[in-house]
Amino acid sequence: MTKSIYEINEKIRRKKAVVLTGEEMVSYVREHGVKNAARKVDVVTTGTFGPMCSSGIYFNIAKTSPKIKLGGGEVTLNRVPAYAAYAARDVFLGATALPRYEKNRIRPINFKYGGAGVIEDLIRGKSVLLEATAYGTDCYPATSLRKSFKLSDLTDAVLFNPRNCYQNYNAAVNRSDKTIYTYMGILKPKMGNISYSSAGTLSPLLNDPELKTIGIGTRVFMAGAEGYIVWHGTQHTTAVKKKNGFPVGGAANIALICDLKKTSPDFLRAAYLTGYGVSLAVGVGIPIPVLDESIARAAGKDDDEIFAPVIDYSQDYPYGKEKAIALVSYKELRSGIVKLGKKEIPSFSWSSLKKAREIAAILKKKIRAGSFLLGDPTAALPGAGRVG
Amino acid sequence: MIKKRLVLKFSPQVVNRPIISALSRKCDISFNILQATITQNKVGRMILEMEGSKKNIDAACAFFKKSGVSFQRLGEDIKMDEKKCVSCGVCIGYCPTGAFSFDAEKKVVFDPKKCIACEFCVTHCPYNAMTLKY
Asked: Which of B57, B73, B89 is the last residue of a domain?
């Protein structure tokens, strides 16, 4: 038996849709079985909240007199370099951008500010200083600009993720003799700790592992706003090893977009990673329509069915020689202790389960209230499977 | 017998005096120096764990007061900003004494009693949710 997104949307409009969070679906499938779940449950909501470096914003600055063409010139926002080579007034700011003074500090650098900090300042309503120099043309004569502005001063501001929501991810360890500072955190020598970053059973793309329902045009919860999947993410792949039908490691990911003005600092936060840099934590939730039994089964899986590869970040990762030392389940990672051979390693997470639950719950509430309809994808992602 | 952990603050006026040595001679307590630093502006900060009878520990505290050393209970100076904390749990992996844990709702909670004020969380919390206040 299969359902269509159209049919589910009709039920949502009539406030008759049966909506469960990813965690509730685990219990439901365990109790009632996959067949019943596929028949009864219409939508499963997911959520994730963790640092995603591949994030940025773009906006258009107000007209000035004389006019300035930022393209080809240089732009900073609170001394953080931004990219302005699109045209005259379009500015793009990446989350990981750093002011020069930050990079000159004693190592390991304890970062205090960067692109993500500017983004957070903007959504908190703070004033940001734009400084620009340009070469001047006949139609755009100004050669410099210095102006403070707030998010509310901009006509448009857009949050954009070239890549987000990795389907699954590595668990990181350090096999060397010294402490290392990575985007997976401070890793103690001789496998003294292990870090991971996934919402596990609530992770959006793990609830639709074959991308049968998620595609271009899917409506999502993004940092408190309504956002959309606009393309596959920049390191998207479906050609990966699988275990229990779920990819082990990175795999699929998506490009996301939403209105920055509608985001909330509750779900969009600058993250400062000692010795590594600045990143942006973005809360994302995707509703998964339960179109067939395979989706009900995937959405009903528990943390003990999904596995992360343990990767060494001292030698293997930096030199592109990633080889899984072992596979560990998210159940084990979540327990706080991972057993590798005879060694018991304390584990810690970059992904907030509390925030992921909040997002899945918000999405569930909105769908049940009929105020969030599912986006019917206009095109599939590369390597996507089919319903039925 | 009781145990007490204190953060001591030595002003520049007293930072050169052998106060801890005097403490060991005057008060019948056992103690353990968990941390000791002197900042660039000559302020000393020490974390001291003391064990002994209540009477002797009170005497030690009175001795600090008399010697011009200010103090407060350990853990009172490290604070968590609930608004900044996102409950990721990175601190759980970093804290050497297990002062952080998840509660039933997966919210990160901080137990000041286990804190030794090493400030690792203050420096490394990705969301700057931990601060040192003295």
From this structure: B73
A53 is catalytic: no
ipTM of the complex: 0.95
Contact A5, A213 (CB under 8 A): yes
Are residues B126 and A273, on separate chains, in Cβ contact within 8 Å?
yes
End residue of a domain, out of B26, B58, B73: B73
Tens-place pLDDT, residues A11-43: 999 999 999 999 999 999 999 999 999 999 999
Tokens of B62: 């009175």
**Contacts across the A-B interface (CB distance below 8 Å):** 63
CATH number at residue B113: 3.30.70.20
- CATH code for position B11: 3.30.70.260
- Residue A325, pLDDT score: 97
CA distance A374 to A13: 10
Query: Which residues does A330 contact at the CB level (< 8 Å), separation at least 6?
Result: A196, A198, A200, A201, A303, A304, A306, A307, A308
Position B76 pLDDT exceeds 80: no
Is A150 a residue whose pLDDT tops 80? yes
Compare all CA atoms of chain B with the CA of A346 and give the residue at the minimum distance: B93
Residues of B in contact with A185 (CB under 8 A): 90, 93-94
Q: Which of A49, A110, A195 sits opposite B86 (nearest CB)?
A: A49
Instruction: Using only the alpha carbons of chain B, give its radius of gyration.
Output: 17
The strand pair at A337-340 and A307-312 is best described as: unpaired
Beta carbons of A272 and B127 less than 8 Å apart? yes
pLDDT of residue B117: 84
Give the domain range for residue B59: 2-73
Both B69 and B6 in one domain: the answer is yes
Residue A331, H or E segment? helix A330-335
Beta bridge partners of A279: A271
Same domain, B57 and B115: no
- On whether both B53 and B85 belong to a single domain, the answer is no
Same domain, B46 and B82: no
- Percent over 90 (pLDDT), chain B: 77
> How high is the pLDDT of residue A130?
98
- Taking CA atoms, what residue in B is nearest to A197? B88
Total domain count for chain B? Answer: 2
Q: Pick the residue of B124, B128, B130 with the most A CBs within 10 A to test the interface with A by mutation.
A: B124
Give the active site residue among A53, A139, A165, A258: A139
